[in-house]
Amino acid sequence: MDQVREVMRYHHYSIRTEEAYIKWILAFIRFNGKQHPKSLGKREIEGFLSDMAVNKNYAASTQSLALNAIVFLYKRVLDLPIADDLEPTRSKKAVRLPVVLSKTEAAQILSAMTGVNALLAKLMYGAGLRVMELLRLRVQDIDFANGYLIVRDGKGGKDRSTLLAQSIVPELKAHLVEIKALFEQDRADNVAGVYLPNLLDKKFPNAGVTWGWQYAFPSKTLSTDPRTGAIRRHHLDESGLGKALRAAKVKVGIDKRVTSHIFRHSFATHLLEAGTNIRVVQKLLGHADVKTTEIYTHVLQQNLQAVTSPLELIQSAIDNDSSS
Question: Catalytic pick from 76, 152, 261, 283?
C-alpha cells in the first residue's frame, strides 16, 4: 500500500480520500483471496462490487467509492487497463429528501449554542458550507472588505466564493484576534508550520508560518501529521461540533435528526424560498450539476406550511358577502 499512498500524495488527494481508497483496495484484495491485483480482472472486480450490493447491503455511494478506488489502483498505480464495461449488481440508490430546519428551528438551535461551536454553526448556515470546507478555512480566505468567503479545493477540487453574513463579522473578527495569540505562541515555541495543500510547502517554504495560511478554526492541541510525522497545529475536529449540535437540539426540543449538514440544506432551501435563482444557489453550494441543487425544490414542494390555500385568500370576501 506504500505505492498507493505515494501515487495519491503525488496527485494531491486528501488524507481522507487516501484512507478510504486504501480501505477498499485492501477489501478487494482480501475478497479475492489475497491474490495480487495484476492477476485479477473484470470478473473479480464485478464479483467484489456485486457482493457489496447483494450480500453486504452497502449504499450506492459507498459502492461507487469502492469502484473509484479500484479504478485508481489499476490506472494510476499499476498502469494497467481496466474494463470499461463493468456490470456489477448495483446498489439501489435511495431517493431521500434532505432534512431541513425551519427558520424558527434554525434560530432556536443557534441561540442554544455557545463559543466557537456557535460561530461554526452560524457560518455553515450563513454560507452553505460543508463541515470540512468550514474547518479547512484559512484566515486569508475570509474577505471582510467584500463580504464573502473563498472555499479552496472544495468537493471536486474546485474553488468557489460564498456569502459572509455581515451580522457575524464582529464575532468572527473577535475570534481571529483570539487565535492569533495562539499562532504567535506557536511561532515563539518553534512549532512546525501549518499543513499546506498541493505541495505548496515545497514552492513556498515559509508560507506555513505566515498568519494568512493559518486555519481559521485551529485545534487547541498539537498533533502529529500522519504524512510527515511533524508536530503541528491542525484544524478543529468535526466531532466537537456534532456533539454541540446534538446537545442544542435536545435543549430546545427539536425531534429532527440534526447533523452539521442540516445547516447547508437549510441554507439552500431558505434561499430558494426567498426567491433566489436556483443557478445562484447552485454556484454558492458548489454543485457541478443543477440537478443536484434541484433536490431542494422538492423540499419546497413538501413544505406545505409555507403554501397558502386559495380558499384562505378569498375567505374574507366570502364572509363579507355572507353577512351582507
Answer: 261
Tell me if residue 130 is catalytic: yes
Of the residues 264, 279, 291, 298, only one is catalytic, namely 264
Q: Choose, from 5, 42, 130, 152, the residue flagged as catalytic.
A: 130
71 and 105 together in one domain: no
For residue 85, tell me if it sits in a domain.
no
Which residue ranges of the chain lie beneath pLDDT 50?
Answer: none
Q: Examine the domain organization and report whether 262 and 169 are in the same domain.
A: yes
3-state secondary structure of 220: coil
Catalytic residue among 13, 125, 195, 296: 296
Cell numbers of 130, please? 460543508
Q: Which of 42, 76, 152, 155 is catalytic?
A: 155
pLDDT tens digit sequence for 251-263: 999 999 999 999 9
Q: Does residue 287 carry a catalytic annotation? A: yes
- Dihedral Cα 5, 7, 9, 14, nearest 10 deg: -70
Task: Identify which of 186, 172, 188, 185 has the alpha carbon closest to the alpha carbon of residue 139.
Answer: 172
The question of whether 261 is a catalytic residue gets the answer yes
* Known catalytic residue at 5: no
- Determine the structural domain holding residue 260 and report its residue range: 96-324
Tell me the pTM.
0.78
What confidence score (pLDDT) does residue 10 get? 86
Q: In the prediction, which pLDDT does 302 show?
A: 67
Instruction: Please tell me the predicted confidence (pLDDT) of residue 309.
Output: 56
State the pairing for strand pair 223-224/142-143.
unpaired
The one-letter amino acid at 22 = I
Q: Assign residue 253 a region (left: φ > 0; alpha: ψ between -120 and 50; beta: otherwise).
A: left
Q: What is the pLDDT of residue 310?
A: 64
What number of residues does the chain have?
A: 324
